């Protein structure tokens, strides 16, 4: 509440109030769409006797639907008020929660999962787009940083809610319904997203990916490393100590670092620019990679995980802010879609790469993945910079 009050005092009411509505709608949706679903979906399906592989496959399909849905988001937002995407988003996660809680072995799980993935990308781009559209240029970094802080808190709250109500189908369905209603009430009073015409077709979409390959790379590394750490740390701890708890604790520290430091990350971007912020985050990743292999599971490991969490969160925020520096709002929203899709692609690839490398090299898996992904990205970006002298 103090952060929200602070944002209101820094901004005039006609800007602060819509920003508060966007943040609230995004926050309550994030709790369910990522905090709850990412944990509940594989857990509920496994507990229903369908096996861990089935639950993991459904979660992957959830993110694949999010990725594919991104190709249609800009066209939808050009035609409708934000209330409609938020309505689809709320309906989709309510349906998935009810199906998973009441009928986890039914044929409805697959279509409900795909529907929920599409709902996720709609809410994601709508809220990111409105934050960028509404925030003053000189405070955009802080506005995005505040929003990403709420997103991190939403992820943290999801497993807590499952711990309290995960066995109560009515309670979990009710929580999802309340979250959807809050998001819809906020969405009803939001302004339209300002969109300009953009080239359509598969060729134009491919061209946008090629033109912004550097931005795609930054967001991909953020998603790849983040989901790698969250999926591999518990498994690595279980291999090393026989217990997953140490890895879960480090994963929580990793998320906490990225969440709590987002306002600082946004402030740094406002003062130095998002491009410098991205280079700083890459430097932190590379600096922490090798010590990570020797850190074990104590206090030193917690410090490293905290710093790496800040770096990964900063990369995604930098990608959003770089996209916000585009040539008009239609352009910005189109590039924001690329940011979300690139992050999602990294999130899909990350767990498979992480678990495979864990089998091959053990505790060096995460350091190797960080060095390869962040180091490779830095080399490519430096090559482009030396040849074209661009802005990332």
Structure description:
The chain is mainly α and 392 residues long. The chain has 15 helices and no strands. Helix 1 runs antiparallel to helix 2, helix 6 packs across helix 13 and helix 9 packs antiparallel against helix 15. The two termini are 35 Å apart. The N terminus and C terminus are likely disordered.
User: What portion of the residues fall into strands of 2 or more residues?
Assistant: under 5%
> Regions with pLDDT < 50 over 5+ consecutive residues?
1-9, 387-392
Helical fraction: over 70%
SSE pattern: HHHHHHHHHHHHHHH
The main sheet comes to: none
Averaging pLDDT over every residue, what do you get?
85
The number of E-state strands comes to 0
Distance between the termini: 35 Å
Number of helices: 15
The class by helix and strand makeup works out as mainly alpha
Q: Kindly provide the radius of gyration, computed on alpha-carbon positions and rounded to a whole number of angstroms.
A: 20 Å
**What is the 3D shape?**
globular
């Amino acid at each position: 509440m103090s952060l929200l009050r602070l944002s209101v005092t820094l901004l005039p009411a006609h800007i602060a109030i819509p920003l508060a509505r966007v943040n609230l709608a995004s926050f309550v949706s994030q709790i369910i769409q990522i905090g709850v679903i990412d944990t509940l979906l594989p857990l509920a399906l496994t507990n229903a006797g369908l096996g861990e592989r089935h639950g993991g496959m459904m979660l992957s399909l959830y993110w694949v639907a999010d990725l594919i849905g991104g190709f249609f988001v800009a066209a939808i937002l050009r035609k409708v008020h934000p209330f409609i995407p938020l309505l689809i988003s709320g309906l989709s996660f309510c349906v998935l929660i009810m199906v998973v809680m009441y009928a986890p072995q039914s044929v409805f799980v697959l279509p409900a999962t795909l529907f929920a993935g599409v709902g996720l990308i709609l809410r994601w781009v709508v809220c990111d787009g409105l934050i960028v559209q509404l925030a003053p240029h000189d405070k955009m970094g802080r506005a995005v940083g505040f929003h990403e802080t709420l997103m991190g808190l939403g992820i943290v709250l999801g497993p807590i809610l499952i711990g309290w109500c995960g066995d109560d189908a009515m309670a979990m369905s009710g929580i999802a319904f309340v979250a959807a209603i809050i998001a819809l009430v906020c969405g009803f009073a939001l302004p339209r997203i300002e969109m300009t015409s953009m080239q359509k077709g598969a060729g134009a979409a491919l061209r946008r990916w090629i033109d912004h390959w550097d931005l795609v790379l930054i967001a991909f590394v953020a998603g790849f490393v983040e989901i790698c750490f969250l999926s591999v740390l518990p498994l690595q701890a279980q291999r090393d100590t026989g217990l997953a708890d140490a890895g879960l604790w480090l994963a929580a520290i990793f998320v906490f670092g990225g969440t709590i430091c987002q306002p600082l990350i946004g402030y740094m971007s406002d003062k130095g620019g998002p491009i410098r912020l991205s280079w700083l985050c890459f430097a932190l990743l590379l600096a922490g990679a090798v010590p990570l292999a020797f850190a074990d599971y104590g206090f030193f490991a917690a410090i490293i995980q905290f710093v790496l969490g800040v770096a990964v969160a900063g990369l995604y925020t930098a990608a959003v802010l770089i996209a916000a520096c585009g040539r008009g709002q239609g352009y910005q929203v189109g590039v924001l879609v690329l940011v979300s899709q690139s992050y999602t692609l990294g999130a899909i690839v990350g767990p498979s790469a992480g678990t495979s490398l864990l089998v091959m090299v053990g505790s060096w898996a995460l350091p190797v993945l960080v060095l390869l992904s962040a180091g490779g990205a830095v080399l490519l970006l430096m090559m482009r910079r030396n040849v074209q002298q661009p802005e990332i």
